[in-house]
Amino acid sequence: MSFFARSSGKAARTASAEPSAAGPAASPASPSPATAPEQADRSSDRAMIDVVEADVMTAIDGVGGSIIATRDEVGRMREGVGRIRTQMERLAAAAEGAAGMTGGMLDTSRLLSSTSERIAGAMDQAGHHLATAADRSVEARALLAELERAGDEIASVVETIAAVSRQTNLLALNATIEAARAGEAGRGFAVVAGEVKALAVETGRAAADVRNRIARLREGAQASGAAIAAMTEAVDAMRPAFATVRGVTGDQAATVGALADEAQQAAAFVSGVSRDTSAATAAATDVDGLAQRAESASAAASVQTEALGRRFVAVIRQTEMGDRRRFDRYPIERVVTLAGTSGRTIDLSRGGVLIEAIPGLRAEPGARLVLEIERIGALTVRVVGISTMGLHCAFEGLAPAAEAALAATLAEVEADYAPMIATAQGMARRMAAVMEAEIAAGRLTPEILFDTAYRPIPGTDPQQFLTQAVPVLERLLSPLIEPPLQADPRMLFCIPTDRNGFLPVHNARVSQPQRPDDPVWNNAHCRNRRIFDDRTGITASRSTRPFTVQSYRREVGSAWVLVREIDAPIRVLGRHWGACRTAYRF
């Protein structure tokens, strides 16, 4: 017989054994007798489930390890990208500084080029003026030579005049003497002779003055000629230097022009480097952002992988083939003493106990321990597993007194839970009945009812979802889930959940419209249309046992209280739709 065939057959047997509405709420104290073939099938099924569980958990562990390795590699990549970005930022700063310097150098080169051009122009003008001065000095020397010759000629004429003046003065003297000899008759002639003599003297003085002036003019002309000659020699001596300076200035102008071109090219290159560096920095920032998101995604995937492992174990343990428990477990909190330390029980059944994790206690799976449970006594147990929940133990060789005390305790607990189990199972049947009636009336289809395309409602925080069935389920189930809360003040909620932990409907007091930007208030007052797929939620949603009992601590109002939850599966037209979850204060 195949695995799935055995599964289907067993599911049918379990379903037929499920209590009816009029039957007992709690499971029987001991398992119903089974034939040898049935026991063989169950053993084979459990062995196969164990193999599947081990393989899946190994795969999950492998994926988790790969995700952690990927996250570590992404973290190292982020560190490397961070260092690259830091270096690129430094390079960008250096490129920016270099751009400023090359820009300044370009401006200076342009100014120097302009100055060199003006110097070259000034040197050209100076050379032109120098050549003009040389030409003018030659002309001046010629004019001075002409002036000196004219002076010599004037001096010759003046000497002639002076000689005539001396002769005239001598003649006037002789005439005066002769006039005196003539007496009265020569008086008039004497007067004329005196005037002539005076004129000759005056002419002599004027000639002497002109002679002196000509001498000074000749001296000045000679000095000017000497100065002009010296200037001409200096100008002639400066001409090679000016030619050299003009050549150097031209070369300098050409060099400065080339330097300006190179500075412009350098500025353009540095500007390009700066742009490329900025782009590289931006790219490094983008890569860092991508790496950060990848790291966050890896971390989220790691968390999801761990959650998947827990969820897989929780889900497979709720299947009829994967459930290793022969007895129902009930949340019972009792003091337990073990290996000199004390702790508390979490749940208890006729087959074993779950003990909260005790710090410092070392126990490996397979180890046998002796523990003492409050009001039950000493018990021998075998450790069958260790999880985040605590120490999972199975009873072995119970003494009659301990077995009787255990049975009495469980009977008391079963009696306490019986009404709550009946309520959960009754509500599950009522919910299934209204769904089936709606399908029969043609107002709902199985495809819509079992729709798992959860569409996020925009703007909700925490996230809420819609499916095609939500409007119908709100109309059908909302009136059903309020009366149980009014009937029992201990009840915290009575809600339907599909197989994936989605709550299409919740009790009215926590189904209020969300407030914008207030996720804390929303989380407490807007719990409808949300997915609760934690261990408790998925255990309730996926369990196909007649009922499931769980316990946990939950914040109610301003205090944390111990909650006991009783869940019953909802089957619609023979298909497992989900569960009815009910919870009570202890």
Automatic annotation (TrEMBL):
Composition-biased stretches (Low complexity): 11-37
Region (Disordered): 1-44
Matches recorded under PROSITE patterns: CHEMOTAXIS_TRANSDUC_2
Annotated GO biological process: signal transduction
Matching SUPFAM superfamilies: Methyl-accepting chemotaxis protein (MCP) signaling domain, PilZ domain-like
Stated name of the protein: Methyl-accepting chemotaxis protein
Residue span(s) of domain Methyl-accepting transducer: 52-291
GO CC annotation, single: membrane
A molecular function GO annotation: cyclic-di-GMP binding
Keyword entries, A-Z: Transducer
